[in-house]
Structures are given as structure tokens and as C-alpha cells.
Amino acid sequence: MKKIIALLFFAFILNGYAQKSRTIFSKDPIVNLENFQKKKVYYGFYLGFNSYDFKIDYKMKGPDILVKKTTGFNVGIIGDVKLQEYINLRFEPGLYYTKRDLYYPNFSNSGDALREVNSTYIHFPLLLKFSSLRTGNIRPYLVGGLSATLNLSSNSKLMDDNLQERFRVKSWTTNYELGFGIDLFSEYFIFSPSIRGVFGLNDELIRDNDPSSPWTGNIEALKTRAILINFTFH
Fold it and tell me: Where do the coiled-coil regions begin and end (predicted)?
């Protein structure tokens, strides 16, 4: 139901935006928000979707843990500071919901074989935006930088582990991010769809109390991988 509501919401926005597309994509468009690029600081917000995964490195070769991804939801705000004509510094704090299911092939019991990893992230990206020359009402850009993530559902403070069906990860992680997008200038606001990859830098896993645990004993490192699709409004 949440996905249906979100899709209907975006369809409504895009339908309204399509009515203005004639002024953006026509051969000789009217230049909208012509003085916007002269602003030193501006703000916005974003809504979007995510698909989180885990990159798992193993100590010894064996059956891989299977990660089932789901589609999550993002919402956040943006602060943008102009450093140079084509370079901006952006801070994009947001709230991210996601879920991953881990399947361990060595277990015959389905209760032991499945671990659900529900995550509620507060995400703090600090990014550099490299914009191209604006053409009419279109301006593509590249974006990249570093981020820190606080996982509110990490279970990091619990003493219970996988024997009690508690999969634990660290509260804080760091990442680097790379992506691209496009600014579309309408008469009253800027709409910016973008796609970005998130790559975890540090091992997130908290091992079980038993060093030979069948759930964590053979894992050398567990790191986040994610794809973010955001729809930004300025």
C-alpha cells in the first residue's frame, strides 16, 4: 500500500510537470529561473526510493549467504552552497527506510536460515555537485562525496545474538557516494531526478558471542551497497 501511494504521488507530480515540458524541451524554450544560478545558498527537499544490499567477504570458501533486497523509501532536505560557477557543496540529511533478508543455505530449519535486517537510517551525505553548462532549461550534473549513516535499528547495544534471532550491526558506518542527475528548470521551481550509488567503507557486522557461530563466524567483512533514486525540488 505504501508503494502504491508513493507511486501515485510521483505520478501526480510528474503529470503536472509534464504540462510544462513544452517550455523545457522545445527547440527555443523560454529560459526559466534565469537568475537562479547566481544564488550563493539555496535549499530544497527530496523524496525517493532505495535498494540496499550487502557486500559480504568470507574467511573461507563456502556457500554464499543470499541477500534478498526490497524497495525502501527516502525523504530529506538539502542545503546547497555555491563554491564556483559549476561547483556546489551540498548537505543532504535524510531518513531512509529499507529491509534486507539474509538466507543461510546451510540450515534446513527455515527459522535459523532466515535473518530479517530491518533498517531505519539517518543519512548524512556531504557532496560536491559538478554541473555542466546550462542549455536552455536543462543542466546535467555529477555528484560525489562522503557520508555517515546512523542505523536506528542496528541492535548494537543488545547482548542477544543470532541464537536469540538477533542480527546485529554497528550503529555508525561511513560511505562514499557517486551519481548523476539533471536539473530541469520550470517556471516556478527546479525538479532534479538523480541516481546515486552508496558504497560502505567499513565492516558493519557485530559478531555473535560464539566465535564459530554459523551466522557470523565465516564472515570477514559485511559492507553496505545501495542504489538511491531521488526526486529533488528547489
Answer: none
Locate the domains of the chain by residue range: 2-233
Do the strands 71-84 and 41-58 form a parallel or antiparallel pair, or are they unpaired? antiparallel
Write out pLDDT tens, residues 89-123.
999 999 999 999 999 988 877 788 999 999 999 99
* Structure confidence by residue, pLDDT tens digits, 30-48: 777 667 767 788 899 999 9
Question: What's the CATH number for 2-233?
Answer: 2.40.160.20
